[in-house]
Amino acid sequence: MKTKRCNGCNKNKSVNEFNTRKLKSGKIGYRFLCIPCERKYKNNWADKHKDELTDRAREKRKEDPERFAKTKKKYNDSHKEVSSAQGVRWRKNNPDKNREKSRRYRAQKSSVEENFTKKDEKFIKELFKNKCFNCGSKNKLQIDHHYPLSKGNPLTIFNAVLLCKSCNCSKGNKTPEEFYNAAQIKRLDKLLNGTRNNG
Hints:
The protein is built from 9 helices and 6 strands, in the order ββββααααααββααα. The protein is of the alpha+beta class. The protein folds into 2 domains: 3-46; 79-198, no CATH class. α2 (50-63) packs across α3 and α4 (80-93) packs across α7 (165-171).
């Protein structure tokens, strides 16, 4: 079995424990660090350059917000448990910021005179067949503002979508166009316009 010495832990390991890299000659070789050492090196580098990486990400987000939103949605969709755990951890580590966020949310609801009743909630749950519109889950369902409260849109039966907690957190204060695909928006418009016409 072919082995290689890792420059990080100085141990001889199977080449299967190293990531490959393209050499100048065009041939495929192996990296100098084994996979665990390489991961450790990258994590340490990221910790040291956290501010630089944050600024770079912020610039990219400004340059192409639509692409950033799609990438974030794709990641959140495939890492729902991770995203949910991160949210719990953030709230636990940032109680003051979380309280301020909740206070702003309540103030926004008050400013638009939101009055969404239990009867309205029951109607929306039945309209969406008691499952998340985005992923189809029946667990931890929540009523979401279709058009965000932060942009002055109160919760009504014409502006309410049933989402699971994970999808609702992923959507945040995004507009429908930033979160859903074209087919989903078409279906939602049909559903919500139907409630308006029937009402």
